[in-house]
Amino acid sequence: MIKGLSIATVWVLDQDRAKKFYTEKLGLEVRTDMTMGEGGMRWLTVGAKDQPDMVLTLMVPGTPAMDEESAEALRKLVVKGVLGAGVLTTDDVHGDYERLKARGVEFVQPPQERPYGTEALLRDDSGNWFSLTQTRQGDLDLDKEWAH
Q: Could you check whether the bond before residue 61 is cis, i.e. omega within 30 degrees of 0?
């Protein structure tokens, strides 16, 4: 039986630059940074300090995951900024918005009220966007809210 999600992939253009962005700007911590296999694939994961069972793997499009044509197409989508990587939750969206903005994080939308809480939209250093969301009463049930 499936017990949950533990790893999600975020496609980045440069792992060193992404590592710096996700740790120094967003405040996540490095969980794994190692080279694997014959091809020298780098396995780089980051996660929130208070969520030890979930990580983001910061992967550069390419082998062994995909052929070069697919990797190039994916890189173009990342650069274009059309890939949404997920929702980052917070208990202080306005404060985090100000702190992250001061660290140089690009926001494409300041905090705005939504049916499920308050949301700001940011981009990582590769172009992926995230929702930074403070839910009402800390209840994150976006699937239920968006289903209507």
A: no
d(CA 130, CA 135): 15
The tens digit of pLDDT for each residue in 36-88 reads: 877 778 999 999 999 999 999 999 999 887 999 999 999 999 999 999 889 99
Phi, psi (5° rounding) for residue 36? -125, 145
Phi, psi at residue 86, to the nearest 5°?
150, -165
- Report which of 100, 84, 81, 103 is spatially closest to residue 92, judged by C-alpha positions: 100
Are 57 and 7 contacting, i.e. CB atoms less than 8 angstroms apart?
Answer: yes
Q: What is the pLDDT of residue 140?
A: 54
* Max CA separation in the chain (angstroms): 49
Dihedral, CA atoms, 76, 65, 45, 110, nearest 10 degrees?
30
